[in-house]
Design a protein that fits this description.
- Residues 317-338 are annotated as: Disordered.
- With 338 residues, this protein is an alpha/beta fold.
- It has 3 domains: 12-55, no CATH class; 69-164 and 298-321, Rossmann fold (3-Layer(aba) Sandwich), CATH 3.40.50; 166-295, Rossmann fold, CATH 3.40.50.
- It has 12 helices and 12 strands.
- A 6-stranded parallel sheet has the order 2-1-3-4-5-11, sandwiched between helices. It has a 6-stranded mixed sheet with strand order 7-6-8-9-10-12, sandwiched between helices.
- Helix 1 (12-19) crosses helix 2 and helix 2 packs across helix 3 (39-51).
- The longest helix is centred in the N-terminal third of the chain and has 16 residues, at 80-95.
- The protein is elongated and about 85 Å long.
- It starts with 11 loop residues before the first helix and ends in a 12-residue tail after the last strand.
């Protein structure tokens, strides 16, 4: 079967005729929402490909009152986790016949609302928010306007949310250090205005409490999620007088900042200081001392978020993916001290 001549438009009628089926049957076979596996549908798709047929998904979606487009709002794409999250959301959306577009908002609530309106002005079928503040009013405003939306990597406890179980992750990280024999454990968590920061700290406190460990004053530090925040926390914790034997850092950026502070003070990670991060970003395993980290299954979270958007009435509205601890060289037993 020959492809149409250059410039010729192959219509659905042409595909149906060449396939020996009705136009409605050809349409159903080529509808990305149905993805029928029948032999007849496979034959129609093969004929369409050979003819060079290109389905106008945008036009058909408009006829259904849809654009098959989702808006994704992130604080910034320079953040590794946010960039990875968007890639997974884009992949998950594509597998369901949707296109994902991203907008960045920074940390200002006003900028976030303006970015959301920009996406809504493009008639997206739903919004996915990866912005982090617990006091963020945007989810409430979207609920009041009946805008289909879902939160990823965090939750306000009300809007549909897909995230990792951060409390379990914090628990796994600190329990790992305790099982290695550490009792002098510090925790550098994320900002208190984030659900991730508060949940990971709650998990860490639970593990410490079970072991009968009371952290020293100054060993529970709320910081930002940047490398510079980790460096500042490391400078505070690794002073000459007393320091912990182990640190749980609530994300890998914080852990890398602590590594830099440790290097400056000639403290050897994995020998003088055990260190556990969070998120298991690609760089974690490639550092000079590979970083033990809590792996967050972003692919599962992305698929769940897309499901919540496509079927917004389903329960439960808050869905958590179980994290996994990945042990590496940065965590080790406490070094004997003179």
């Amino acid at each position: 079967m020959e492809r149409a001549a250059p410039g010729a438009i192959v219509t659905l009628k042409d595909v149906a005729a060449a396939s020996g089926v009705s136009i409605s049957t050809a349409s159903r076979a080529l509808d990305e929402r149905s993805a029928s596996r029948s032999a007849a549908a496979a034959h129609v798709r093969k004929v369409a490909e050979e003819l060079g047929y290109r389905r106008n998904s945008f036009a058909s979606s408009l006829r259904r009152g849809e654009t098959r487009t989702l808006g994704v709002l992130v604080p910034r794409l320079s953040d590794t986790v946010m960039a990875l999250m968007f890639e997974e959301l884009e992949r998950a959306a594509s597998s369901r016949g949707y296109f994902a577009m991203v907008a960045t908002s920074g940390d200002d609530p006003g900028d976030e609302r303006r970015a959301a309106e920009t996406l809504l002005d493009r008639n997206v079928d739903g919004l996915i928010l990866a912005t982090a503040r617990l006091d963020d009013e945007l989810p409430r405003l979207l609920r009041e306007r009946n805008v289909v939306h879902a939160l990823v990597l965090r939750t306000d406890g009300v809007s549909p949310s897909a995230l990792g179980d951060d409390e379990v992750g914090g628990y796994l990280a600190v329990r790992h250090l305790i099982d290695l024999g550490h009792r002098d454990i510090a925790v550098v968590t994320g900002p208190s205005f984030t659900s991730t920061g508060t949940a990971r700290l709650a998990g860490a406190r639970k593990a410490l409490g079970e072991a009968g460990i009371t952290p020293r004053d100054g060993w529970l530090i709320a910081a930002g999620y940047g490398i510079e925040d980790g460096f500042s926390a490391g400078e505070s914790l690794l002073g000459p007088d007393s320091r912990p034997s182990a640190v749980f850092a609530a994300n890998d950026n914080i852990a890398m900042g602590i590594m830099a502070a440790a290097h400056r003070r000639n403290v050897r990670i994995g020998e003088d200081l055990a260190l556990v991060g969070y998120n298991d970003t690609p760089l974690a395993s490639r550092l000079p001392t590979p970083l033990t980290s809590v792996h967050v299954h972003l692919d599962q979270i992305a698929r769940t978020a897309i499901d919540l958007i496509i079927d917004p009435g389903q329960e439960p509205r808050v869905r958590k993916s179980m994290p996994t601890l990945i042990p590496r060289e940065s965590s080790g037993p406490p070094k004997a001290r003179d």
